[in-house]
Amino acid sequence: MSLPIWTPAALSSEARSLDGNCWRLVEAQHRVSTLKLVDNLDEQALLEELIETSKPVIPRECRHLHYLLATPFRYGSNYPSGSRFRRAGKTLGVYYAAEKVETAVAEMAFYRLLFFSESPDTPWPGDAAEYTAFSAVVRTARAVDLTAPPLARNKQAWTNPTEYAACQQLADDAREVAIQAIRYRSVRDPQGGANLALLTCTVFATPAPVERQTWRIRLGPSGVQAICEYPGKRIGFDRDSFAGDPRLKDMRWIRK
Fold first, then answer.
1. Domain for residue 88, yes or no?
2. Where does the RES domain lie (predicted)?
Protein backbone atom coordinates (compact mmCIF):
# COMPACT_ATOMS: atom_id res chain seq x y z
CA MET A 1 0.00 0.00 0.00
CA SER A 2 1.39 3.39 -0.99
CA LEU A 3 1.72 5.94 1.80
CA PRO A 4 -0.41 9.11 1.89
CA ILE A 5 1.54 12.12 0.66
CA TRP A 6 1.33 15.00 3.12
CA THR A 7 4.27 17.34 2.84
CA PRO A 8 5.43 19.24 5.91
CA ALA A 9 4.11 22.45 4.34
CA ALA A 10 0.69 20.88 3.76
CA LEU A 11 0.55 19.68 7.36
CA SER A 12 1.54 23.11 8.62
CA SER A 13 -1.37 24.66 6.74
CA GLU A 14 -3.74 22.32 8.64
CA ALA A 15 -2.50 23.34 12.10
CA ARG A 16 -5.25 24.14 14.56
CA SER A 17 -5.60 24.76 18.28
CA LEU A 18 -6.06 22.02 20.85
CA ASP A 19 -7.10 22.73 24.43
CA GLY A 20 -8.38 20.23 26.97
CA ASN A 21 -7.65 17.27 29.21
CA CYS A 22 -6.17 13.94 28.21
CA TRP A 23 -5.97 10.62 30.08
CA ARG A 24 -3.45 7.81 30.57
CA LEU A 25 -3.36 4.67 32.70
CA VAL A 26 -0.39 3.27 34.62
CA GLU A 27 -0.10 0.32 36.96
CA ALA A 28 -0.84 1.43 40.51
CA GLN A 29 2.39 -0.16 41.80
CA HIS A 30 4.58 2.34 39.91
CA ARG A 31 5.93 3.79 43.21
CA VAL A 32 4.86 1.33 45.89
CA SER A 33 6.82 -1.59 44.41
CA THR A 34 10.17 -0.35 45.73
CA LEU A 35 8.85 -0.42 49.31
CA LYS A 36 9.20 -4.20 49.23
CA LEU A 37 12.97 -3.83 48.93
CA VAL A 38 13.66 -1.43 51.82
CA ASP A 39 12.94 -0.99 55.53
CA ASN A 40 11.78 2.63 55.67
CA LEU A 41 10.76 5.64 53.58
CA ASP A 42 14.21 7.24 53.68
CA GLU A 43 15.73 4.12 52.15
CA GLN A 44 12.97 4.07 49.55
CA ALA A 45 13.72 7.68 48.59
CA LEU A 46 17.41 6.83 48.18
CA LEU A 47 16.58 3.76 46.11
CA GLU A 48 14.27 5.82 43.88
CA GLU A 49 17.08 8.35 43.35
CA LEU A 50 19.50 5.59 42.35
CA ILE A 51 16.96 4.11 39.95
CA GLU A 52 16.35 7.55 38.47
CA THR A 53 20.05 8.05 37.68
CA SER A 54 20.11 4.78 35.74
CA LYS A 55 17.25 5.79 33.44
CA PRO A 56 17.52 7.66 30.13
CA VAL A 57 17.81 11.44 30.39
CA ILE A 58 14.74 13.67 30.61
CA PRO A 59 15.01 16.59 28.14
CA ARG A 60 15.68 19.95 29.77
CA GLU A 61 12.32 21.39 28.69
CA CYS A 62 10.52 18.55 30.51
CA ARG A 63 12.38 18.59 33.83
CA HIS A 64 9.83 20.78 35.61
CA LEU A 65 7.08 18.24 34.93
CA HIS A 66 5.76 15.50 37.19
CA TYR A 67 7.43 12.22 36.27
CA LEU A 68 4.15 10.78 34.95
CA LEU A 69 4.12 13.50 32.29
CA ALA A 70 7.86 13.62 31.59
CA THR A 71 8.68 9.90 31.39
CA PRO A 72 7.53 9.25 27.78
CA PHE A 73 9.94 11.94 26.57
CA ARG A 74 13.09 10.37 28.01
CA TYR A 75 15.79 9.72 25.44
CA GLY A 76 19.16 8.03 25.22
CA SER A 77 18.09 4.40 24.87
CA ASN A 78 16.63 2.43 22.01
CA TYR A 79 12.86 2.37 21.59
CA PRO A 80 12.50 -1.37 20.95
CA SER A 81 9.81 -1.95 18.34
CA GLY A 82 8.18 1.33 17.36
CA SER A 83 4.59 2.45 17.84
CA ARG A 84 1.95 4.29 15.85
CA PHE A 85 3.69 7.68 15.76
CA ARG A 86 7.20 6.76 16.88
CA ARG A 87 9.80 4.79 14.98
CA ALA A 88 11.97 2.14 16.60
CA GLY A 89 15.48 3.10 17.62
CA LYS A 90 16.86 6.21 19.29
CA THR A 91 13.90 8.39 18.41
CA LEU A 92 12.13 11.31 20.04
CA GLY A 93 9.47 10.46 22.61
CA VAL A 94 5.71 10.54 22.13
CA TYR A 95 3.15 10.87 24.92
CA TYR A 96 0.08 8.81 24.02
CA ALA A 97 -3.18 9.71 25.73
CA ALA A 98 -6.95 9.65 25.23
CA GLU A 99 -9.49 12.44 25.38
CA LYS A 100 -11.75 10.35 27.63
CA VAL A 101 -10.80 7.99 30.42
CA GLU A 102 -13.03 5.28 28.92
CA THR A 103 -10.88 5.29 25.77
CA ALA A 104 -7.71 5.05 27.85
CA VAL A 105 -9.19 2.04 29.66
CA ALA A 106 -10.04 0.40 26.32
CA GLU A 107 -6.46 0.90 25.14
CA MET A 108 -5.09 -0.70 28.31
CA ALA A 109 -7.56 -3.59 28.08
CA PHE A 110 -6.48 -4.29 24.50
CA TYR A 111 -2.77 -4.32 25.25
CA ARG A 112 -3.24 -6.56 28.28
CA LEU A 113 -5.15 -9.02 26.09
CA LEU A 114 -2.44 -8.76 23.44
CA PHE A 115 0.14 -9.87 26.01
CA PHE A 116 -1.90 -12.97 26.81
CA SER A 117 -2.58 -13.65 23.13
CA GLU A 118 1.17 -13.75 22.54
CA SER A 119 1.67 -15.90 25.64
CA PRO A 120 -0.98 -18.62 25.25
CA ASP A 121 0.34 -20.79 28.08
CA THR A 122 0.17 -18.01 30.66
CA PRO A 123 -2.87 -18.46 32.95
CA TRP A 124 -5.30 -15.61 33.49
CA PRO A 125 -4.51 -13.51 36.58
CA GLY A 126 -6.31 -14.63 39.69
CA ASP A 127 -7.25 -11.11 40.75
CA ALA A 128 -8.06 -7.80 39.14
CA ALA A 129 -5.06 -5.52 38.59
CA GLU A 130 -5.16 -1.97 39.92
CA TYR A 131 -4.38 1.01 37.68
CA THR A 132 -4.14 4.73 38.21
CA ALA A 133 -5.84 6.84 35.55
CA PHE A 134 -4.63 10.42 35.47
CA SER A 135 -5.44 13.44 33.37
CA ALA A 136 -3.30 16.35 32.25
CA VAL A 137 -4.17 19.67 30.65
CA VAL A 138 -2.93 20.15 27.09
CA ARG A 139 -2.83 23.44 25.19
CA THR A 140 -1.27 24.20 21.81
CA ALA A 141 -1.94 26.19 18.66
CA ARG A 142 -0.03 23.65 16.54
CA ALA A 143 -2.06 20.44 16.34
CA VAL A 144 -3.39 18.41 13.42
CA ASP A 145 -6.60 16.40 13.51
CA LEU A 146 -6.62 13.15 11.52
CA THR A 147 -10.35 12.72 12.18
CA ALA A 148 -11.29 15.94 10.34
CA PRO A 149 -11.06 16.88 6.65
CA PRO A 150 -8.86 16.96 4.70
CA LEU A 151 -6.58 14.59 6.65
CA ALA A 152 -9.49 12.26 7.38
CA ARG A 153 -9.58 11.14 3.75
CA ASN A 154 -6.62 8.89 4.59
CA LYS A 155 -8.49 7.26 7.48
CA GLN A 156 -7.53 3.73 6.45
CA ALA A 157 -3.84 4.55 6.67
CA TRP A 158 -4.16 6.28 10.04
CA THR A 159 -6.22 3.47 11.60
CA ASN A 160 -4.46 0.35 10.36
CA PRO A 161 -4.35 -1.98 13.40
CA THR A 162 -0.81 -3.27 12.83
CA GLU A 163 0.95 -1.21 10.15
CA TYR A 164 2.28 2.14 11.36
CA ALA A 165 4.48 3.34 8.49
CA ALA A 166 2.07 6.06 7.33
CA CYS A 167 1.58 7.42 10.84
CA GLN A 168 5.29 7.39 11.58
CA GLN A 169 6.04 9.31 8.39
CA LEU A 170 3.30 11.79 9.25
CA ALA A 171 4.85 12.35 12.69
CA ASP A 172 8.29 12.89 11.16
CA ASP A 173 6.89 15.47 8.74
CA ALA A 174 4.85 17.11 11.50
CA ARG A 175 7.94 17.63 13.64
CA GLU A 176 9.66 19.39 10.73
CA VAL A 177 7.09 22.20 10.90
CA ALA A 178 6.69 22.33 14.69
CA ILE A 179 3.38 20.49 14.87
CA GLN A 180 3.11 19.60 18.55
CA ALA A 181 0.16 17.22 18.77
CA ILE A 182 -1.77 14.77 16.60
CA ARG A 183 -5.43 13.95 17.27
CA TYR A 184 -6.58 10.61 15.85
CA ARG A 185 -9.26 7.97 16.23
CA SER A 186 -8.47 5.18 18.69
CA VAL A 187 -8.09 1.92 16.81
CA ARG A 188 -8.66 -0.09 20.00
CA ASP A 189 -11.70 1.62 21.55
CA PRO A 190 -14.89 -0.10 20.29
CA GLN A 191 -16.66 3.25 20.76
CA GLY A 192 -14.21 5.02 18.45
CA GLY A 193 -12.98 7.59 20.97
CA ALA A 194 -10.21 10.05 20.18
CA ASN A 195 -6.56 9.72 21.14
CA LEU A 196 -3.73 12.25 21.22
CA ALA A 197 -0.09 11.79 20.30
CA LEU A 198 1.86 14.61 21.94
CA LEU A 199 5.17 15.19 20.17
CA THR A 200 6.60 17.55 22.77
CA CYS A 201 6.22 18.06 26.50
CA THR A 202 5.83 21.81 26.02
CA VAL A 203 2.11 21.33 25.32
CA PHE A 204 1.33 20.62 28.98
CA ALA A 205 -0.46 23.62 30.46
CA THR A 206 0.09 22.43 34.04
CA PRO A 207 3.19 20.65 35.41
CA ALA A 208 1.35 17.78 37.10
CA PRO A 209 -1.76 15.63 36.66
CA VAL A 210 -4.98 17.43 37.57
CA GLU A 211 -7.21 14.43 38.29
CA ARG A 212 -6.72 10.79 39.25
CA GLN A 213 -8.95 7.75 39.37
CA THR A 214 -8.37 4.18 40.54
CA TRP A 215 -9.45 1.44 38.15
CA ARG A 216 -9.46 -2.32 38.65
CA ILE A 217 -9.20 -4.38 35.49
CA ARG A 218 -9.92 -8.10 35.42
CA LEU A 219 -9.04 -10.37 32.51
CA GLY A 220 -10.56 -13.80 32.02
CA PRO A 221 -12.15 -16.28 29.62
CA SER A 222 -15.15 -14.05 28.94
CA GLY A 223 -13.16 -10.88 28.23
CA VAL A 224 -12.26 -7.83 30.30
CA GLN A 225 -14.14 -6.05 33.08
CA ALA A 226 -13.01 -2.62 34.28
CA ILE A 227 -14.42 -0.92 37.38
CA CYS A 228 -13.85 2.51 38.88
CA GLU A 229 -15.39 3.01 42.32
CA TYR A 230 -15.28 6.81 42.31
CA PRO A 231 -16.69 8.17 40.19
CA GLY A 232 -18.67 4.98 39.70
CA LYS A 233 -18.01 3.55 36.24
CA ARG A 234 -18.06 0.07 34.73
CA ILE A 235 -16.85 -0.96 31.29
CA GLY A 236 -16.93 -4.44 29.79
CA PHE A 237 -15.15 -5.84 26.74
CA ASP A 238 -16.27 -9.25 25.49
CA ARG A 239 -14.34 -11.65 23.28
CA ASP A 240 -15.36 -9.79 20.13
CA SER A 241 -14.65 -6.24 21.30
CA PHE A 242 -11.20 -6.16 19.70
CA ALA A 243 -11.89 -8.56 16.84
CA GLY A 244 -10.63 -6.02 14.31
CA ASP A 245 -7.03 -6.74 15.29
CA PRO A 246 -5.69 -9.92 13.67
CA ARG A 247 -3.27 -10.52 16.55
CA LEU A 248 -6.17 -11.51 18.81
CA LYS A 249 -7.75 -13.84 16.26
CA ASP A 250 -6.25 -16.99 17.77
CA MET A 251 -6.59 -15.97 21.41
CA ARG A 252 -6.81 -18.97 23.72
CA TRP A 253 -9.67 -17.85 25.94
CA ILE A 254 -9.98 -21.05 27.96
CA ARG A 255 -6.84 -21.63 30.02
CA LYS A 256 -5.87 -23.89 32.87
1. yes
2. 72-210
